[in-house]
TrEMBL record:
It comes from Tahibacter amnicola. Coiled coil: none annotated. This is Dolichyl-phosphate-mannose-protein mannosyltransferase. Signal peptide: none annotated. Keywords: Membrane, Transmembrane, Transmembrane helix.
Length: 474
């Protein structure tokens, strides 16, 4: 099992690297770190999507199907990558990875942490609530029974005369993560929760490498990258979700953060490949978890507004409102599950809750952000960085748009817990920190991009101010 899983991961990483290069072009200078980070993320996503397109795949057929499928996919993606390799991509700053010894010690601590996390994930079964309630049961049922039957609502299941349908309490949940788990079990050759659980530590590592590579491409100095990567990788709740395999919050946070950083590169370097990558990851967000649809709509609106010239900003805002309304209308028309779930969460009158409950929910949210040991001092430090580096937002429009998006997302979470019945989840500390976890990589990245000019020393003979933005590449 271990050998098959290891070879499977090698094939998935190779596939993901080929997909990344095929989208963005030949890596320049230090962009190989970005390739290494995106490779496992894109590899498992491509495999999960491919399995979803083969509805009749069974557990018995899966090992052989994955072997042939990965081989064909590698050839196809490799061909596209070779074609894009010749085209190249816009140049990025020259790579200089000279760091002080203490910064390399931080990198070493992260490597040690990865070993401990993957050991935890390997030894533990998938027992988190979401794991055995939403995603793992579907994957395990498909694999063990050898029948990829659809999951439907209780009424449809009850009226099924043939008995070929299945139902569960979370039958509406997106199935991409279940398909990925199904694929990993196929690579292992048997349903083994240790093998399936390796997805989360690998996603954690891919998130760190992808962010470090994208930060380098955006001109962040190596020493700042080392510190920022350690800050991101040492966040207690992020580490917990990497070791406690089963939740979808870590994969969702990784995809959202990578999409935002790819868009940053488009805004600053006009790299079309990065824009395609950002949009592609954005489209996949609702396929992982319902919250992904909300973050995707908000980020799509931010991208649309940023693309509109300042003199047409009101027109752009009206277009965004119409776009969101159209998306909601289409979701209602075709009965997209995420909207039905959101409607059930928001059911009830917000005014029916006493002020004391709102205050209790607010205290719980603030405690989760600033007092509990979930993020150490991340959110307090980010507020300080935004205050100190306020002028940098006007000098870096791309960073300002990211700050606007993050602020809107935080306000949306606060509104959810303070104005709807979901406040009870904040008071019991069961959901508030998991929602903020999905935004944490973007928050860390915002702080890094606001501070990058502080750590950048001008080159000899360069009379430009350190805060001057680099010109877009042709």
């Amino acid at each position: 099992m271990t050998t098959g899983l290891l070879l499977g991961w090698v094939a998935l990483i190779a596939l993901g690297a080929a997909v990344y290069i095929g989208i963005t072009g030949r890596p320049r200078h230090g962009d190989w770190l970005s390739v290494a980070g995106h490779a496992p993320l894109l590899g498992v996503l491509a495999c999960g999507i491919a399995i979803a397109l083969v509805p009749d795949a069974t557990g018995a057929q899966l090992p052989g199907l994955l072997g042939w499928g990965l081989g064909i996919a590698l050839l196809a993606a490799g061909g596209v990558a070779a074609w894009r390799w010749r085209q190249g991509a816009p140049a990025i700053p020259q790579t200089d990875w000279r760091m002080p010894w203490w910064a390399w010690c931080l990198v070493g601590l992260l490597a040690l942490r990865f070993i401990l996390i993957i050991d935890e994930a390997w030894l533990r079964p998938q027992f988190p609530w979401d794991a055995w309630q939403a995603w793992a049961p579907k994957a395990k049922t498909w694999f063990v029974t050898g029948q990829s039957a659809a999951y439907v609502g209780p009424e449809a299941w009850w009226n099924d005369a043939e008995g070929s349908l299945r139902s569960s309490q979370s039958w509406r949940y997106p199935e991409l993560l279940s398909r990925i788990e199904f694929s990993l079990a196929g690579l292992a050759g048997a349903w083994n929760e240790a093998a399936v659980g390796t997805l989360w530590p690998v996603w954690w590592l891919g998130l760190l490498l992808a962010f470090a590579g994208q930060w380098r491409a955006l001109g962040v100095p190596p020493v700042a990258i080392g510190v920022a990567t350690y800050v991101l990788g040492s966040l207690p709740l992020l580490d917990t979700h990497a070791a406690l395999a089963g939740y979808a919050d870590l994969p969702l946070a990784a995809l959202l953060g990578c999409s935002v950083l790819a868009w940053q590169r488009w805004m600053e370097h006009r790299d079309r490949g990065q824009l395609i990558l950002a949009i592609g990851l954005l489209v996949l967000l609702p396929m992982l978890k319902f919250e992904g649809a909300v973050w995707a709509l908000g980020f799509a609106a931010t991208m649309a507004l940023a693309a509109v010239p300042p003199r047409m900003r009101w027109f752009g805002m009206a277009s965004v409102v119409l776009m969101v309304a159209a998306a909601v209308a289409v979701s209602l028309l075709v009965e997209v599950p995420w909207l039905a779930t959101l409607r059930s969460i928001l059911s009830g009158e917000a005014g029916s809750h006493p002020d004391v409950e709102r205050l209790a929910a607010l205290r719980a949210v603030l405690s989760g952000l600033f007092l509990q040991e979930n993020w150490h001092l991340l959110w307090a430090a980010l507020l300080g960085v935004v205050v100190v580096r306020w002028r940098a937002l006007s000098e870096r429009p791309a960073v300002a748009w990211t700050a606007l998006y993050l602020a809107g997302a935080v306000v949306a979470v606060l509104g959810l817990f303070l104005l709807t019945p979901a406040g009870k989840w904040a008071q019991s500390n069961t959901a508030v920190n998991r929602l903020f976890l999905q935004l944490v990589p973007v928050a860390v990245s915002l702080g890094v991009l606001l501070l990058r000019d502080v750590f950048t020393a001008p080159a000899p003979g360069d009379t430009r101010p350190a805060s001057a933005a680099p010109p877009p590449a042709a």
